[in-house]
Amino acid sequence: MAGKVYLVGAGPGDPELLTRKAWRVLQSAAVVLHDDLVPEEILGVLPPTAQRVNVGKRCGAKSISQDEINALMVQLAHEGKIVARLKSGDPLLFGRAGEEMEALRHAGIDFEVVPGVTAALGAAAAAQISLTDRRHASRVVFVTAHREGGTGLGNERHVAADTTYVIYMPGHRYAELAAELQAAGIGAEIPCVVISRATTPEEAIFRTTVGKLPESPAAASPSLIVVGIVAGATADEAGAPGHELSSKLREEILQLALQHPYHESYGRGGVE
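^ thats the sequence. predicted structure below, dont judge the formating
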């Protein structure tokens, strides 16, 4: 019997932000190959029969290569297993899904992508930032700082004014990012927000400006930075730039997530 691979978005961290389909796939998967940044609260919804394999590559430390992950997916599917390749956020945004889909196509493996709430949307919701606003921002740019040569914001010099920038995987290189943003024409006075572990009990939000970004405290991973006029829309309510907010989701919310209604509705039967 032929197996199948699902590239599943785990969302930003809160189990209740899993989609109905993601939840159902996870209940039916024989093997779950998950990224290192998928939180334990998400992995906690897996049935005890599912085999969990951490295939994460974090902060440059690679316990397994991308080629090895591709080969493992192909091997398991050839064995007739339902495989969930569980990725933080959405699989199609900075998740190497393109490489994995290509490998599965070449091997003739049936696969499906299950979208997830990407980190930018989870973080923006947590910080109450509207990424677009007809008064301030008509354009959103997602970039990653986890690449050689920086984020590539140099090409933004002529279009920065009405844009919101979301910087994924910034690490703690705030001084470099501040310099790159200003070199791209984004002024030192422009608001920015560092959001760490959005939608989880460890969520933290730090509001500052591009010029003062290097003074920000190091944020726990995973984190991202939202830059733009819209990032200052709630600054008056939150306090002065640099005010830190910590949001602890109630323990009972996470417990309720384990009794998710979609879980009960779809049970642990086969994936359609």
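The chain has a mean pLDDT of 85.
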